[in-house]
């Protein structure tokens, strides 16, 4: 069954649509717990996995094979690859550094930007701790005392008031 035939089989059937949404929600939540995101392209590609078809049409429970297959989807696999490269760079892997030295300057810069964007996205996914009312009041007083607008905005971002 191809993705097109899967879409045709689901059609406007509310029960099948709800099951597919539940499956993608479960996969997405599990990946999000690991710091990964399920793109729209990968969501479509899930329709081609046999275990997803069984879960949608046969009411079979999801097993680990669905999550393993989801990690092999193109966009998720790319996120995992970037994470692995970043880890190897931080550890000072000599083989990776040798590969990086053979890359062109623009390719290294592109890779560095991708890794930086992934790090920022991962830190953004982890919610900052919430402040109590008293702590928030103190933080607002501190922000009001800062005269420079640029510094005030920067501090507000650090405190979690702005994104």
**Gyration radius, to the nearest Å?**
22 Å
Any low-confidence stretches, pLDDT <50, length ≥5? none
- Describe the main β-sheet briefly: none
Count every beta strand, where a strand is a DSSP E run of 2 or more residues: 0
Beta strand %: under 5%
Cα shape? flat
State the end-to-end CA separation: 44 Å
> Topology as H/E string?
HHHHHHHHHH
- Average pLDDT, all residues: 83
Q: Percent of residues in helical segments?
A: over 70%
Structure characteristics:
163 residues, mainly alpha, 3 domains
What is the gist of this entry?
The chain has 163 residues and is mainly alpha-helical. The chain has helices spanning 3-10, 14-33, 40-45, 50-57, 64-70, 74-91, 94-102, 105-125, 133-145, 149-159. α2 (14-33) packs across α4 (50-57) and α6 (74-91) packs across α8 (105-125).
Plain-language structure description:
There is one protein chain. By secondary structure, the chain is mainly α. It folds into three domains: 70 residues, no CATH class; 49 residues, no CATH class; 34 residues, no CATH class. 74% of the residues lie in helices and 0% in strands. The protein contains ten helices and no strands. The longest helix is centred in the C-terminal third of the chain and has 21 residues. The protein is flat, with a radius of gyration of 22 Å. The relative contact order is 0.07.
